[in-house]
Amino acid sequence: MGALRCFSVLLGKFTTFRCYQVALLLAAAFAVVAFYYFGAEKQNFSSTTKRIKEQTQASGNSNRDDADLDRVGKSRVVDEGADHQKRARDRRHFHALMMFTKVDKSTTLQGKFEVAMRSLVKHGHFLEDEVLVLHYVSDAASKELGEKVLPKLMMDAAFQYEVVFHDVVVLTEKLFPVVEAMQRHFSAGSGAYYSDAIFFLSVAMHRVMPAEITRIVQLDLDLKYRTNIRNLFQEFGHFSPEAVIGIVREMQPVYRHTFWQYRKENPRSGVGDPPPGGMPGFNSGVMLLHLQAMRRSALYNRLLEPEQVARLAERYRFRGHLGDQDFFTMIGMEHPELFHPLSCGWNRQLCTWWREHGYADVFRLYYRCDEPVHIYHGNCNTPIPDD
Length: 387
Prior knowledge:
Blueprint: H1 2-43, H2 47-59, E1 77-78, H3 84-87, E2 92-100, H4 107-123, E3 130-138, H5 140-153, E4 160-167, H6 168-186, H7 205-208, E5 216-219, E6 223-225, H8 229-233, E7 245-249, H9 254-258, H10 260-265, E8 282-289, H11 291-296, H12 298-303, H13 306-315, H14 324-334, E9 339-341, E10 348-349, H15 363-367, E11 375-377
Helix pairs in contact: 6-13
């Protein structure tokens, strides 16, 4: 019996010791699990993964697909007219619009688009609560192409972005009543062609875009970005109270030529003369459209009226073919306060066509740009320098 009692005591101690060890092992295992699954949010998650998690929690997962959470910068393709403010009120949106029609039929346009988007991505940086919204005015075939190539072109984007496609037919229907009169004066063909209306989109952008969009940048496809596009949006902050559009001067003597009759009758006017003292006109390759200011400006909206367009065109003996650019140039002759002059570096035009067509003696006066180049514009199919 004594031996049995000793064996029982020893077995009790051994059992107690094993339970204690098991408890220690379980506690250690729990600590490891807790570290990786709870503490890692602050210590081991990459900054990108952490941002995605925070953004998902903030939005309540109510408006994003699972695929959108793969990485910061993942695109969300939405339909025209989507309410961005209701979709993500905690984010600031920067809107940029490009014409994207007939791109499916042109390998040249496709090449330009690739250069533009890759350079935009390369230099683009935005804050974590900011979204670059890319608007494309497109036909059905070009939209299909865009949806296919954009994910590849935007793959390395270090910022959040969204893509919105606008049906060119729908926009044209909205624009035509507003711009029909000015088409007679600023279109390549004679008469007001319905299809030409889209080339005046910027003129009436404030009337066709949702009221929630207060500012938008319109950009040509034949651009190459050499700086962060976010910096371009900062120019809105430098607008005067009267300004509604930010734009760069024309860097060729095109309006010296177009205004030839008015210049002959008014040789001291400065119309069409080179900078700094002259009025060379504008180039529409890069434009900042302050839609809210455009909506408020009684002067600007009065200038859209057919009678005012006809009056100014007659006064300046003006007949153009460059659409919105011609209209802005003409009204800028009388109302420069409507325009915020951008540095030539924001739209460094490279075309030299007029140098070889009668204006070699004065070409340099228009073409010169001593400012740092932020955006190259390869207009008239001019090659853009490599970085």
